[in-house]
Amino acid sequence: MTLPRKPQIRLRYSKLGKVRFTSHRDMARIWERAVRRAGLPIAYSEGFSPRAKLSFGLALPTVFESQAEYVDMTLDLDTEINVAHLPELLTPMLPEGVDVIEAVHLSGKVTSLQEVVETTTWSLFVAGEMNSVESWVNTLLAAETLEITRERKGKTRVDDVREALLHAEVRPIDSSDTGLPPKATCEIFTELATKPRALRPLEFLGIQDPTHEFLLGRRISQYIAPHGAQHDPLVVGAAVETSAAVCAS
Amino acid sequence: MVSLWTELEPLLTRVEKPARYIGCEDGASTPEWSDDAVSWLLTYPDTYEIGLPNQGLQILYEILNERDDALAERSYAPWTDLEAEMRAANVPLFSVDSHRAASDFDVIAFNLSSELVYTNVLNCLDLAGVPLHCSDRDHTDALVGAGGHATFNPEPMADFLDWVGLGDGEEIVGDVSAVIHAWKQSGSTDRQEVLRALAQVEGVYVPALYDAEFVDDKLVAMTPRFDDVPAVVEKRTVADLAEWPYPKNQLVPLTEVVHDRLSVEVFRGCTRGCRFCQAGMITRPVRERPADQVRTMIQEGLRRTGYDEVALTSLSTADFSGITEVIRSTVGDESSGCGDVSVSLPSLRVDAFTVGIAAELQRGRRSGLTFAPEAGTWRMRQVINKLITEQDLYDSVEGAFSQGWRRVKLYFLTGLPTETDEDTLAIAELGRRCVEIGRKYHNGASVTVSVGGFVPKPFTPFQWFGQNTIEELSRKIYLLRDEVKKIKGLQMKWHDPKATFVEGMSTRGDRRLGPVIEQVWREGGTFQEWSEHFDVDRWTKAMADHDLSIEWFTYRHREEDEVFPWDHLNAGLHKDFLWQDWRDALNEVGLEDCRWTPCYDCGACTGYGIEHVVASATPPAGGSQGTGQDLARGHEVTVELIARPVGAS
Questions:
Q1: Beta carbons of A18 and B10 less than 8 Å apart
Q2: For A154, left (φ over 0), alpha (ψ -120 to 50), or beta?
Q3: Which of B265, B323, B377, B473 could form a disulfide with B497 if both were Cys (CB 3.0 to 4.6 A apart)?
């Protein structure tokens, strides 16, 4: 006999502006309070210190912005909820810059966000001559190996991260974006693999001591790539009947 | 001026916990600025994590922002990494609300909760670009003020503070705003004018308007320099807490802070009469908040903030008349939609922690349990007027362990008047018995004793007592530590006696300490409450450099006729009452709680024509201190309680 499954929901949200200085742990607490304030019938874990059942995807480094953060939440049994209403319900309960963009019901066996996300894309805003930034990027892409020194459990080791660098290009600044540092001269758009070990954007930015100055990073998307094709975690996880969830913003 | 955010933002990418500096809390204000409003920068001179939850600051923040003639933003001391970045980039101290420069504000007001933050005040003023000394400021500089418990002796900070608010701030900030507003509107450029006007506000002390007179080493008088300046400044007391249901919009920080929960103040003041406790003396009389209002504040607060924990704050929350009903209605409240709500009582009384309350709290999530017996022997507890019996403690601890708690923390003081090694070592014995009780219920039961060095404070009966030296406090702590080590399941923590020394020197110091504080700051001594930044040598050196005696300021017993540096300030308590209480202490005589017994005229009510506001005329059940109930229970010593007749000195 199987127990009835509690409804699960996956949401995508942004983290832009001043709130980028909060940590992953801070965001978890902010979310817990937000769901209580919104009166969502969130499920709690058992035990002496019950915690709201929220699980987050790959941690966003503090000081980075994002347009694509995800959280999975488990609701109480017998909860009927129209996920299309969640963005307008939750966004006012969250700090400025954190907007819930879309929500879907999850169906079938749900694998955690940490496990399923395979690549992430980033906009990295820098100050420096566009030509020299371009040549730095081209050098990296042309290299057979890219070695960086990492510390793990107190030991230093050298890793080749070339295979984790999936894509990189230099773009001019979008002048309509008012949230960018005034000093920014161009954007490095890059796609980095999260498996077998994630290449972090700050690690990428430090390869071969570039001359340009890193100012602001923004995660643009996270992808699940089951058969070589990239999918948004919302699309992969969504139940058939709600896959056409309304995008509220 | 406008926001400094653009200048600040790049610095924040390079510092620890940058979320401390962004503001954006739920409940924060971004007030409209206008020339017609007096702008206040309410500054907590320690880190954001410690300062943000401060209820006093939050209350004044709301009250000021509700006024038409004022506005308020907040600031906290930047941690050393950001301070270095700010100095390198020429970014001044800023508000976290709209990231304005501190120098844009008409008033910079500090919360002084402890003496160890004094050097941080100087650092904040320096970062703000405000001249450090009052005497160097002109009409374009902010009026630097302070409030909080440490300001009941503000003399060590007299060189740096233009004005000080004594007592409850709710009404003071309004009156001060009105005075400054009128001065600004008049277009006056005479700073003396506004200082003289501020000195007329009840509860406001302007240090520069008084002369300190010394004969040899001794302070002999504090004299007002002008006829219209009061010879004695009386503290301000809010008569009815029900009229001030603040904070209404408690700030909800985005990052972790020390008290990350809803706080509701259930009463102010305390008449337990613990002789070591300055807070209990200076905040009299007891003013309870009506239980209905407490309930409303809890329910609305939980709904608005999303917190699942509420702390009921006061100096002794178990004394609150409505405690049982408030806890019951909060823990069992399904309608809040907040899931299980946990209640914490930060100040549990040892004697009245009834099994009933424990059970009510247990229904929600468990919260930590801490008791404060304060001293190890009954004799010592009579001296300090903390009249709980050993049996009270064992009953409380048994109640806790039997209800499922596995860890109990016990607070003690050492270095108390008349304390012998027998008294100190008795702390270990109490701890051992508590572990024994715990082990009846859980194999892993543990007890921690936390020991602080006693600091005699102004406006307490112990203000005449010479503090124990660093060496003596250390000796006692190590003596106790060696004893505790032998007991399985008993842990011990203690405060650094060197920090206790600095606190003691400053709390009863006079104006001559100003240059000492300044030198310690100039030599890098900020964040003195943080052990990694505290260095006692800076203080001893600064004292020596200014030819001041540590012995004289800190360790000397005071004479009956000593002129204290705070004698021209009044916390409500008659000096002869305090002296008599000091004699009673030395005679090991206890004094009842006057809430439920006849008045013994300490001065706190009669002097201001106000009264205790308590909903219940009878003391809470289950206790012994000052209640006339079960006084000798479990103990062979009979308590001698003397009710002093009204008017007796």
A1: no
A2: left
A3: B473
* B212 SS3 class: strand
Cβ-based contacts of B252 with chain A (< 8 Å): 33
| ipTM here | 0.90
| Domains of chain B with CATH codes | 5-229 (3.40.50.280)
Per-residue CA distances from A100 to A64, A103, A180, B308, B376 (Å): 17, 8, 21, 23, 56
Nearest to B380 by CA among B586, B623, B237: B586
Q: Are B225 and B210 in contact (CB under 8 A)?
A: yes
Spatial separation of the C-alpha atoms in residues B51 and B53, rounded to whole Å: 6
Contacting residues of A for B22, CB less than 8 Å apart: 18-19, 21-22
In this structure, what token pair is assigned to residue B634?
């479990």
b/e per residue, B539-552, with b = 16+ CB within 10 A?
bbebbeeeebebee
Nearest to A95 by CA among A176, A30, A50: A30
pLDDT in tens, B19-59: 999 999 999 998 999 989 999 999 999 999 999 999 999 99
pLDDT at B635 over 60: no
Alpha helices by DSSP H, listed for A78-127, are: 86-90, 113-116
pTM for the whole thing?
Answer: 0.92
pLDDT digits (tens, 9 = 90+) for B254-296: 999 999 999 999 999 998 899 999 999 999 999 999 999 999 9
Q: How far apart are CA A128 and CA A211, in angstroms?
A: 7
Nearest CB to B305; choose among A19, A33, A44: A33
